[in-house]
Sequence to fold (477 residues):
Amino acid sequence: MEFEQIYLGCLAQASYLIGSDGEAAIVDPSRDVDHYIRKAADKGLRIRYVVETHLHADFVSGHRELAERTGAEIVISARAGALFPHRAVADGDEVRVGRVVLRFLETPGHTPEGVSILVIDTERSPEPRMVLTGDTLFIGDVGRPDLAGIRGLTPAHMAGLLYDSLHEKLLTLPDAVEVYPAHGAGSLCGKNISKETWSTIGEQRRTNHALQPMSREAFIGKMTADLPEQPRYFGMDVEINRRGAAALATRRWPPALDSRECAARVEAGAAVVDVRSNLEFGAGHVPGSVNVGLGGQFASWAGTLLDAAQPLLIVAGDDDRVAEAVMRLARVGLENVAGSLAGGVDAWHASGRPLATIAQITVADLRSMVGKDGLQVIDVRRAGEYAGGHVPGAVHAPLDRIAGEASRFDPARPTAVICAGGYRSSAASSMLARAGFKDLRNVLGGTGAWVAAGFEVARADEEGARFVDPSRLPTRL
Fold:
């Protein structure tokens, strides 16, 4: 049996190639499908099936294009309501890929139509060797249960289904069965997914917080507490995936526009997305632009922070980065790119138009400033990260809600923005600048650098914020 996990770091997303006797199945493909076709050809395999574990909310799948280009059949749950030609499967159904059997288990909870796939290599054993769990079971976590709200299903109802799927289906498997989920650390489909990309049923039974002994009611309470806000693009991507996205080759390439043309587009309502690093952005950028750097989880944050209905203008250092940004935006369904700024910010400045700046400071600088001159410190990490330890006096306002929460702060006061390493804080700083904040500072290295420097850390617990030893903090900050 051929088996390969294909991991896309930008989306913390895993797809899979399974092959046997000249045939292959691709599970949960990303939007750009050329690499699947090349991989299968290199291995001498014909792609016979394209399999979806569910209707993905956090990225646009390439299932339709991959099937059209290879003649493969798309396999998806009968409960998905898919609007493209497909084979609908239910609990216990099987498809064969050479001498490999793919057996489907209905495992709703993250979504109503979610399935997990038992992979049985009949050359080795009639028993399953691995299970592809989609977004039902992650390494260290389980799928969030609140994505079906647009279909009238409550998070509590879905969490109950998730409990049943875990305990009646997945946890009945032998401990040695390998677990391969659709996402890893950083995905917005779970709250605290491990950085590991595979495990075993036995290891997850021992270590996964959501699989520890508890009643169904306790599980529902745990899974529905402190859910992060659902990114704005999730519902859109579900519907794109239900009908199947158009082939990327059919899309019009956005033109390179001069400064005058870009300024006119901005005046008409386009948003400027600067995909450079926080240092480049801070040194000079088009006023009002949003910084979502290609160096981080660009696609997820772009989908979260940008309006899919608004025309987008890209600012990058070169044409290659423009092309990369366009591709990665398409992976989350953002295809309304009106153009890019030819010549970048240098051309903008050369045309006589001003550039805006945001100061970049070290954690040592921040420590010397805390508590002085009215400085307000905003921590834009997720709730669990903030609770684990933060700069004393920092106020929590997660990046995914920063636009709506800017009014909690005084735009006239000096403001330092901090995250884990400087990426999210730069995005947040750019959005605060758009909201009228004038005296902004982005903290380089973020809380990770603060902790590494040995500076005092506050943690919220039952006694309120207090100082703790940095060595007691979680390592993943």
Remarks:
- The two ends are 39 Å apart (CA to CA).
